[in-house]
């Protein structure tokens, strides 16, 4: 059984078509899997970015509220000194009033 040239070419073209279809299908499958994995990675990165943005907002809110809840030691000492000076002044005035009252 001898094949003539046209049958050999037809078989070769058919085999080449099947092979190229198979390769094309495999490439398409690999690309779709790669695209799916990239999509999953981007989705997870977007979630992480959203978490980081929320964390940054919380930190900025904390920084804004910090002066309302925290007093520096130096400020506390200064305020305490002012209050004690006023109390000392009030005590001195009361002593003066008591001395004047005792003289009368």
Descriptive account of the structure:
The termini are far apart. It contains two helices and no strands. It has a domain at 71-104. The longest helix has 65 residues, at 5-69. It is rod-shaped, with a radius of gyration of 44 Å. It has 104 residues and is mostly helical. The model has no long low-confidence stretch (mean pLDDT 92).
Task: Record the SSE blueprint.
Blueprint: H1 5-69, H2 73-103
Keywords: Membrane, Transmembrane, Transmembrane helix
Transmembrane segments: 12-31
Q: Portion of residues in helices?
A: over 70%
Number of strands: 0
Number of helices: 2
Main sheet makeup = none
- State the separation between the terminal residues, measured CA to CA: 150 Å
Low-pLDDT segments: none
Mean pLDDT across all amino acids: 92
Looking at how many chains there are and whether they match, the oligomeric state comes to single chain
Order of SSEs? HH
The radius of gyration over CA amounts to 44 Å
SSE-based structural type: mainly alpha
What percent of residues are in strands?
A: under 5%
Task: Choose one word for the global shape.
Answer: rod-shaped
